[in-house]
């Protein structure tokens, strides 16, 4: 799908930007960020709050943090966890349940659950 952006923000994008801004969860983002949210079906601040998982530099970092936060790695020795391929985990497992949108800087990726 190709989206063409103009210099004028649509009322739909402006409303979403203002609603998300009022949550205090993220700083102001480029218009493309809000358009991507709408393309994924996030149209309200409530949907945004339900779906938003945080900012990470990559899918691999997101996966590793998620697994660590769940406490699933505490029982596994480091010599095993040091060989987990977190990029593969993102590509093969989690990208089906989550999506990422580029933030305003290179390496700033925002992650969202597809189930909101």
Describe the structure.
The chain is an alpha+beta fold. Helix content is 43%, strand content 13%. It contains six helices and three strands, in the order αααβαααββ. A three-stranded antiparallel β-sheet has the order 1-3-2, with helices on both faces. A hairpin with a 6-residue loop joins β2 and β3. 13% of the residues are buried.
Précis, in short:
By secondary structure, the protein is α+β, with helices and mostly antiparallel strands.
Helical coverage, percent range: 40-55%
SSE order: HHHEHHHEE
Distinct helical segment count: 6
For the biggest sheet, the summary is: 3 strands, antiparallel
Cα-based radius of gyration, to the nearest Å? 16 Å
Strand order of the largest sheet: 1-3-2
How far apart are the first and last residues' alpha carbons, in Å? 22 Å
Overall number of strands? 3
Oligomer state of the chains in this structure = single chain
Strand percent estimate: 5-15%
Q: Structural class given helices, strands, pairing?
A: alpha+beta
Shape by Cα distribution: elongated
- Mean pLDDT across every amino acid position: 90
Contiguous low-pLDDT stretches (5 residues minimum) are: none
Give me some keywords for this one.
three-stranded antiparallel β-sheet, elongated, 6 helices, alpha+beta, 116 residues
Give me the secondary-structure topology.
Blueprint (H helix, E strand, L loop, with lengths): L10 H11 L9 H9 L5 H7 E5 L2 H12 L7 H4 L4 H7 L5 E5 L6 E5 L3
Antiparallel strand pairs: 1-3, 2-3
